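Reminder to self: tokens first, then the designed residues, so the page reads top to bottom the way the pipeline ran.
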């Protein structure tokens, strides 16, 4: 297994880097044609999801290189990866996935 980059090591060891009382997008991985995402829920449960999966947050409609698009109650929300030096963000409303996504 390859060793993690210095940036990855730094992000992985930050104290209080994510808000544990909100859903957090931990990572996106897999092939471009079939990406998967890892979500951590407030209770500590972690799920791995793909486009089309139903989650506690809604149905996954797309996975970008840095975001998860979730449809719920007639709208689409976005859960983004935390950036260096930023506390993890919460779901943000968005009208629809961009053309660059792999929407169903």
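Designed residues (104 positions):
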């Amino acid at each position: 297994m390859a060793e993690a980059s210095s940036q990855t090591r730094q992000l992985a060891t930050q104290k209080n880097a994510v808000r544990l009382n909100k859903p957090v997008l931990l990572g996106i991985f897999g092939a471009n044609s079939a990406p998967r995402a890892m979500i951590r829920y407030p209770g500590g449960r972690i799920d791995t999801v793909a486009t089309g999966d139903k989650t506690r947050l809604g149905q996954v409609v797309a996975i970008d290189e840095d975001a998860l698009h979730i449809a719920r109650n007639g709208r689409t929300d976005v859960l983004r990866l935390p950036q260096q030096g930023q506390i993890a963000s919460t779901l943000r409303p968005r009208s629809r996935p961009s053309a660059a996504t792999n929407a169903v």
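Residues 79 and 90 are 6 Å apart (CA to CA).
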